[in-house]
């Protein structure tokens, strides 16, 4: 199969850098185009990220000398089969629309279009069928391109385990407390003075996203738009904590029909996620890992499970108020951002949309 020619919008930021490093040697996709703000436009990539390359691997050779374009210059991306967008929400709102209009599909991380009524918000293990909205979106807008988004990184540490149980036992309500890494705020993010020796119990907009986005993901296509689910009711508390990567969540669930403890663990351990026959390169073999040790998952020890693409759960025990409680963990810039975007694009490729 010929590799698809891909671009990365906002390639100089924290998520953009993750895309660039994770896409090195990708079997289906080849990075041929990089863009960012006008501040970086015109520089070669290695110059544009000089002094702010935050990945643990070197800048891939193949992209070092690519000239960074201005993301607002849509014409400069004409040679791309599709683009990954790591744009902030402000610029994403207008620009992603323009790319789709120009016939260039956009696989986005930004929140700008998450609640646009005909834009699918995908976690491939949960709602792959939502990509059936793409032809409807294209017809609605008269576009040849399209926009597909992924949800906020904070959801990723509990949505798949919650969904795996919801399918069978119907989760009625969930109380979720997240402990989110500083990389989730990009670079430079939270000032070191504010986060070292500290926990900040506020991340702008995050609790609303954590409560509302699952409803679209668990919803369904109804005509020209998505109909949101009405349950589970979710109450979220989101905190910024002094770790670099890895969002952890403690979760309490109430069910319509309370399952047995071992049944929950069996469901998680047997959860297959994306059909294996699609052979998506970034799909984790075990999307949900259950750790039986009493002190796991831990951020540093478990965030890289399955190359950062799995959710690790643990500490499943009875909840004195609701039914069951557990801990979930996922890598926020891999599964929660660039890796999740790449998996979405792989699904789109496997289903013939790219
Ligand atoms: P970041 O490190 O602050 O990087 C911002 C990027 O956006 C840079 O590449 C910057 O380019 C570019 N940019 C800024 N203004 C622009 C404009 N007007 N036009 C074009 N490009 C512009 O932010 P980040 O952490 O990578 O986050 C990027 C997006 O991903 C956000 O929407 C965020 O909410 C989302 N997200 C982040 C995470 C995470 O864990 N970090 C997870 C999920 C989703 P210059 O270098 O030229 O300024």
Topology overview:
Elements (H helix, E strand, L loop, with lengths): L3 E6 L4 H9 L6 E8 L8 H4 L12 H4 L3 E3 L11 E4 L3 H13 L4 E3 L24 H9 L5 E3 L9 H11 L1 E10 L11 H4 L10 H12 L2 E3 L2 E3 L5 E8 L6 E9 L5 H10 L17 E4 L7 H4 L2 H4 L2 E8 L5 E7 L3 H17 L4
Parallel strand pairs: 1-2, 1-4, 2-3, 4-5, 5-6, 7-10, 12-13
Antiparallel strand pairs: 7-11, 8-9, 11-14, 13-14
Helix pairs in contact: 1-12
Bound molecules: NADP nicotinamide-adenine-dinucleotide phosphate.
The site of NADP nicotinamide-adenine-dinucleotide phosphate has 28 residues, from α1, α4 and α12.
The secondary-structure class comes to alpha/beta
- What is the number of domains? 2
Radius of gyration: 20 Å
CATH C-level class of the largest domain is Alpha Beta
* Ligands bound, unique: NADP nicotinamide-adenine-dinucleotide phosphate
Q: Biggest β-sheet: count, sense, barrel? A: 6 strands, parallel
Q: What fraction of residues sit in β-strands? A: 15-25%
Give unreliable regions as ranges: none
Order of helices and strands: EHEHHEEHEHEHEHHEEEEHEHHEEH
What does this structure look like?
It is a single chain. The chain starts with a strand and ends with a helix. Strands 3-2-1-4-5-6 form a six-stranded parallel beta sheet, sandwiched between helices. With about 350 residues, the protein is of the alpha/beta class. It has twelve helices and 14 strands. Helix content is about 30%, strand content about 20%. Strand 8 and strand 9 (about 225) form a beta hairpin. It folds into two domains: about 5-150 and about 340-350, 3-Layer(aba) Sandwich (Rossmann fold); about 155-330, Dihydrodipicolinate Reductase, domain 2. The longest helix is centred in the C-terminal third of the chain and has 17 residues, at about 335-350. The protein has helices at about 15-20, 45-50, 60-65, 90-100, 135-140, 160-170, 190-195, 205-215, 260-270, 300, 305-310, 335-350; strands at about 5-10, 30-35, 70, 80-85, 105-110, 145-150, 170-180, 220, 225, 235-240, 245-255, 290, 310-320, 325-330. NADP nicotinamide-adenine-dinucleotide phosphate (NAP) binds near residues 71 and 89.
């Amino acid at each position: 199969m010929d590799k698809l020619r891909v671009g990365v919008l906002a390639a100089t930021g924290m998520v953009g850098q993750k895309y660039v490093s994770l896409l090195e040697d990708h079997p289906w996709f080849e990075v041929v185009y990089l863009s960012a703000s006008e501040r970086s436009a015109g520089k070669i990539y290695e110059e544009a990220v000089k002094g702010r390359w935050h990945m643990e691997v070197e800048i891939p050779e193949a992209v070092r000398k690519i000239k960074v374009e201005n993301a607002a210059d849509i014409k400069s991306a004409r040679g791309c089969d599709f683009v990954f967008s790591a744009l902030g929400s402000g610029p994403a709102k207008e620009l992603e629309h323009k790319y789709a209009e120009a016939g260039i599909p956009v696989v986005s991380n930004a929140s700008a279009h998450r609640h646009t009524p005909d834009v699918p918000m995908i976690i491939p293990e949960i709602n792959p069928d939502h990509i059936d909205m793409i032809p409807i979106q294209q017809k609605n807008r008269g576009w040849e391109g399209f926009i597909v988004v992924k949800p906020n990184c904070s959801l990723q540490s509990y949505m798949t385990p919650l969904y795996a149980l919801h399918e069978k036992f119907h989760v009625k309500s969930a109380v979720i407390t997240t402990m989110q890494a500083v990389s989730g705020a990009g670079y430079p993010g939270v000032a070191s003075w504010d986060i070292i020796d500290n926990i900040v119990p506020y991340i702008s907009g995050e609790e609303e996203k954590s409560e509302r986005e699952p409803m679209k993901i668990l919803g369904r296509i109804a005509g020209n738009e998505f109909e949101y689910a009405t349950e589970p009711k979710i109450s979220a508390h989101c905190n910024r904590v002094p770790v670099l990567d890895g969002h952890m969540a403690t979760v309490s669930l109430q069910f319509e029909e309370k399952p047995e403890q071992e049944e929950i663990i069996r469901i998680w351990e047997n959860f297959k996620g994306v059909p294996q026959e699609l052979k998506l390169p970034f799909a984790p073999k075990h999307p949900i890992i259950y750790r039986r040790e009493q002190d796991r998952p831990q951020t540093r020890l478990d965030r890289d499970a399955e190359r950062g693409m799995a959710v690790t759960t643990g500490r499943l025990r009875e909840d004195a108020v609701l039914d069951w409680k557990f801990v979930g963990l996922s890598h926020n810039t891999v599964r929660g951002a660039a890796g999740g975007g790449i998996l979405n694009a792989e699904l789109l490729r496997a289903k013939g949309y790219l």
